[in-house]
Design goal:
The protein is α/β, with parallel strands linked by helices. The protein has 6 helices and 7 strands; from the N terminus they run βαβαβαβαβαβαβ. The chain has a 7-stranded parallel β-sheet, with helices on both faces. Helix 1 (19-30) packs across helix 6 (211-223) and helix 3 packs parallel to helix 4. It is globular. The mean pLDDT is 93.
Length: 254
């Protein structure tokens, strides 16, 4: 505890069976935190829990189901004594612009990516109050900081997460619960495996990021970021900074 900010000891990680979620669960557990891995991929989630035996457990979670959320929180409290961290990370991707994306597809993305996080925050707040405070990290994207053609539903959900984060940070500040948003760029996961290599060619760091690089930021947020709330943390290889263009000596000023 530093001042009024609690540094976390027990974290629920949603979407924890693979990708960024799994790498974060692994890093937090090996760093001494208790981790509840929550996902709909039961076999993969349980396997990871077994790998991290003693520091982790697994619980099925459909983030759109309010009862599932209450079960995850209750099981975490029962196993670990308290809950003071939530990595609100589960999400889905759908391609399609405003004309191509079907209404039911749009609603599904919003339901999982945005409403699911809202349900998670509501479910975990009483446990965090009982613990004396805590921290919530909501996974948005750099698509929550700028627009993207062909990603109408996804980008809308990620912008919504950013707004939800700021509102929750204000609403929960008096309970010593901090809330921040995380904005990864192109990270090497199942969600991005179909992206061509040239997507990152113009970035200052011209490669896809690794899940462990995001996980290290999340560990910092839960264990060190005692004076941060309501703000954005970006892990994007400089993608938002701008594109590095090839030098063209025949053009003035280059």
């Amino acid at each position: 505890m530093i001042g009024s900010a609690r540094l976390c000891q027990t974290v629920i990680v949603t979407g924890g069976a693979r990708g960024i979620g799994a790498e974060t669960a692994r890093l937090l557990a090996t760093s001494g935190l208790n981790v509840m891995i929550a996902d709909i991929r039961d076999d993969e989630g349980q396997a990871l829990s077994d790998e991290l035996a003693g520091r982790a457990a697994y619980c099925h979670l459909d983030v759109t189901c309010e009862q599932d959320w209450h079960s995850v929180v209750a099981q975490s409290e029962r196993l670990f004594g308290h809950v003071d961290g939530l990595f609100n990370n589960a999400g889905v991707l759908a391609h399609g612009g405003v004309e191509d994306c079907q209404p039911e597809q749009f609603r599904r993305v919003i339901d999982v990516n945005l409403a699911g996080m809202f349900l998670g925050i509501r479910a975990v707040v009483p446990a965090m109050r009982n613990a004396g405070g805590g921290m919530i990290v909501n996974t948005s994207s750099i698509a929550g900081l700028q627009g993207y053609a062909g990603l109408a539903a996804y980008a809308t959900s990620k912008w919504g997460i950013r707004g939800l984060t700021k509102c929750a940070a204000l609403d929960l500040a008096r309970d010593y619960i901090r809330v921040v948003s995380l904005h990864p760029g192109p990270i090497k996961t199942a969600m991005t495996q179909s992206m061509p290599a040239d997507v990152v060619a113009g970035q200052p760091l011209p490669r896809f990021g690794e899940p462990i690089e995001v996980a290290r930021m999340v560990r910092f947020l839960f264990t060190e970021a005692s004076y941060s709330t309501g703000c954005e943390f970006v892990v994007d290889g400089g993608a938002l900074t701008g594109e590095i263009l090839p030098l063209q000596p025949n053009l003035p000023g280059l």
